[in-house]
């Protein structure tokens, strides 16, 4: 493997990386792979380092997250953070990630090596064991475009449990201590994995205590005084509510329990308190940022979001254009592109065969790829006989609540040849669905960002979606998809009927498909906006603390 040349701006040991990744057929590195990796590494090394303090010191980025693809995830959080970190690394930032070492992670990674000595963190009255581990193979491939990933080991809190947040009986009863421990362990680990100054980027309520612990402990600690914090709220519907005694149990000062910080209707609210202590807060789309500032859309925290003023912004998520590209997608039957659309019709026939539907090229196929939960608008779909009576075939892909899955499977049995259902979700099937369907429905109650609508447009599959959150920011009505406003069956059915009407006019439909496929939803633009926010947060006065 080619060794990366180090730039004069990033000569510290922590930024020394191997440049290339193994690729090609059978995982073997080819000469072309090595040359491309070397060229890319040298190009990045030649650039000036992209993030500095006012004094000119380079700032590294450390993401702290409960889920991370491909190791352990329950939704889009893990994929979004993984892709953001990769984009930041490709832009020349020194990026690391910290996540818990779950049992599920050990099923994916088998070559762990210690990345630190054992250490202890004080969580309230308890001293808790911690140690960092890395995957040897991932560490060997670390370089520009491949950030470093550290796993926090604690058998009691993470390794010995089946789920991330809970099990079949519900959420774990000690989730306040589990996530307090993880936040403290991550904060303690920072000097072990990087040098100050640091931008610590936390994600959702599970990591929101890290800014609070930093605020409580930074006095007299030079490293922490050179650490800034950002929290991204991926889903404000989950906030981490616990009884007030949890403040002492997780070792937070009681004076933090006030209406400006952790107190919320007689409860301790971890997300609210973490936001109050962070240097900046983001959410995953500009429209959703506006929604969160309203009483209707703020999940009871609208006043807290309003109080953040310019320190709270919405930055849209992106998708990995390399992973979602119909021109070279290995999972679909026929590759196609914006300028070569005809094979998409063959993918439609292949999709109909997979789901046991009659091969009817002229019948529109309407798909849905989502968690089968109320938030995704299942009540609008299943509560409307008019939807399933549309002149179309329907395919549903995704796991979810039993009540919805049971109804879908019953409907598929009642009307064979019109409805296909697969509840054993796989990424491969999602690729095939997006390549073969004509439309994707997303009638969400709320949707902070959404990824499916961006992937669908990339594949020329037009979304029919409610005009909320990231759906409003990424779909142009009657140009790249079809939007409706109110969460009503009438609004949803009207949008679907409008989509089918456009489908019946091939010239108009093809124009929309090509327009959708031409939209760029890659991470590069969003990465730049995050970097600008980091820069602003670094230069804001520290008096807030």
Tell me what the CATH architecture of the largest domain is: 3-Layer(aba) Sandwich
SS strand fraction: 15-25%
CATH hierarchy class name of the largest domain = Alpha Beta
* Structural class computed from helices and strand pairing: alpha/beta
Largest sheet: 10 strands, mixed
Per DSSP, the total helix count is 22
CATH topology of the largest domain: Rossmann fold
Annotated CATH homologous superfamily of the largest domain: Glycogen Phosphorylase B
Which overall shape is indicated by the principal axes computed on the Cα atoms? globular
Number of strands: 21
| Tally of individual domains | 2
Enumerate the spans where pLDDT stays under 50 for 5 or more consecutive residues.
Answer: 1-34
Mean pLDDT: 89
Euclidean distance between termini CA atoms: 46 Å
- C-alpha-based Rg, rounded: 24 Å
Q: Could you estimate the helical fraction of the residues in percent?
A: 25-40%
């Amino acid at each position: 493997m080619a060794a990366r040349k180090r730039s004069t701006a990033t000569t510290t040991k922590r930024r020394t990386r191997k440049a290339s990744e193994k690729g090609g057929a059978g995982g073997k590195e080819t000469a072309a792979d090595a040359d491309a990796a070397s060229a890319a590494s040298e190009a990045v090394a030649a650039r000036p380092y992209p993030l500095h303090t006012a004094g000119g010191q380079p700032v590294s980025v450390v993401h702290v997250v409960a889920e991370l693809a491909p190791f352990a995830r329950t939704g889009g959080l893990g994929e979004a953070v993984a892709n953001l970190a990769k984009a930041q690394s490709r832009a020349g930032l020194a990026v690391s990630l910290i996540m818990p070492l779950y049992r599920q992670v050990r099923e994916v990674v088998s070559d762990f090596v210690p990345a630190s000595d054992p250490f202890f963190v004080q969580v309230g009255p308890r001293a808790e064991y911690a140690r960092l581990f890395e995957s040897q193979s991932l560490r060997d491939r670390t370089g520009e475009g491949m950030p470093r990933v550290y796993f926090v080991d604690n058998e009691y809190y993470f390794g010995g449990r089946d789920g991330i947040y809970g099990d079949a009986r519900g959420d774990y009863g000690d989730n306040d201590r589990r996530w307090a421990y993880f936040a403290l362990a991550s904060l303690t680990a920072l000097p072990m994995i990087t040098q100050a100054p640091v931008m610590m980027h936390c994600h959702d309520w599970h990591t929101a205590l890290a800014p609070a612990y930093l605020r409580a402990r930074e006095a007299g600690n030079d490293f922490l005084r050179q650490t800034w914090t950002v929290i991204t709220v991926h889903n404000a519907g989950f906030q981490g509510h616990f009884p007030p005694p949890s403040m002492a149990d997780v070792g937070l000062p009681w004076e933090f329990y006030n209406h400006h910080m952790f107190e919320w209707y007689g409860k301790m609210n971890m997300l609210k308190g973490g936001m109050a202590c962070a240097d900046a807060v983001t959410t995953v789309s500009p429209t959703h940022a506006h929604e969160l500032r309203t009483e209707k859309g703020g999940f009871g925290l609208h006043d807290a979001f309003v109080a953040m003023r310019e320190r709270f912004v919405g930055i849209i998520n992106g998708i990995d254009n390399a992973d979602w590209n119909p021109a070279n997608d290995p999972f679909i039957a026929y590759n196609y592109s914006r300028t070569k659309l005809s094979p998409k019709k063959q993918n439609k026939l292949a999709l109909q065969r997979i789901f046991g539907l009659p091969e009817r090229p002229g019948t529109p196929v309407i798909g849905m790829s989502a968690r089968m939960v109320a938030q995704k608008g299942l009540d609008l779909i299943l509560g409307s006989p008019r939807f399933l009576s549309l002149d179309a075939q329907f395919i549903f892909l995704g796991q979810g609540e039993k009540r919805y899955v049971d109804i879908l499977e019953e409907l598929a049995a009642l009307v064979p040849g019109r409805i296909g259902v697969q509840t054993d979700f796989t990424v491969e099937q999602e690729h095939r669905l997006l390549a073969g369907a004509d439309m994707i429905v997303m009638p969400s109650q709320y949707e902070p960002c959404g990824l499916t609508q961006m992937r669908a447009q990339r594949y020329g599959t037009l979304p029919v979606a409610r005009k909320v959150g990231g759906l409003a920011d990424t779909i142009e009505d009657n140009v790249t998809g079809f939007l409706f406003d109110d969460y009503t069956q009438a609004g949803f059915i009207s949008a679907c009927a409008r989509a089918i009407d456009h489908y019946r006019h091939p010239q108009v439909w093809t124009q929309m498909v090509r327009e959708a496929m031409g939209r760029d939803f890659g991470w590069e633009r969003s990465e730049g906006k995050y970097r600008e926010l980091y820069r602003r947060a670094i230069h804001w006065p520290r008096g807030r603390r």
